[in-house]
What does this fold into?
Amino acid sequence: MGKMRLKTVAISVCFRAFAAMSVAAIIQGCEKEIDFKYHDIEPVTVIEGALSQTGGCVSITMTTPMDEPMNTNRITDAEVVLTDVTDGKPVELTVDESGDFVSDQGGVAGHTYELCVRRAGHMFTSRSTMAMPTEVTGMQFQWIKMPMIMWQFCRSHSLIIRNGQAIAIG
It folds into this structure.
């Protein structure tokens, strides 16, 4: 009886070692190095703007090559004008301490606005209509039963499921 148990343990150990080596070989075999070849280009002006009912903010930066650290320095040598096309009222935005162009004059829902940025001999324009504010009339939460296939995904992503229902994310 002792020899039989020893033989079973030896087979079990050999099987586990073979399984571990197989998994390692599969993982090692799936590795592939990808070498991206980025083409260097001259920096491009990036303009980000937002207009709300309380004011407007525009930031101007330059693109950064992929292999260099991100440059978040704001560009401040520009002329930035926001025009309410509906009323014909232009507002020149001024630079604040963080390097953003700002205005405390808010927008009006339903009005069309044009942003004009002049810098280094270039002019950038954009036109948009301010949408009506979204009214939240209510919220609700509902538990749902999840299919078994989601169980494996959720186990690996720290979602706890009990009796077929998601109960916590950890």
Q: What stands out?
A: Confidence is low (pLDDT under 50) at residues 153-158. The chain is about 20% helix and 35% strand. The first helix runs from residue 2 to 29. The longest strand covers residues 45-52.
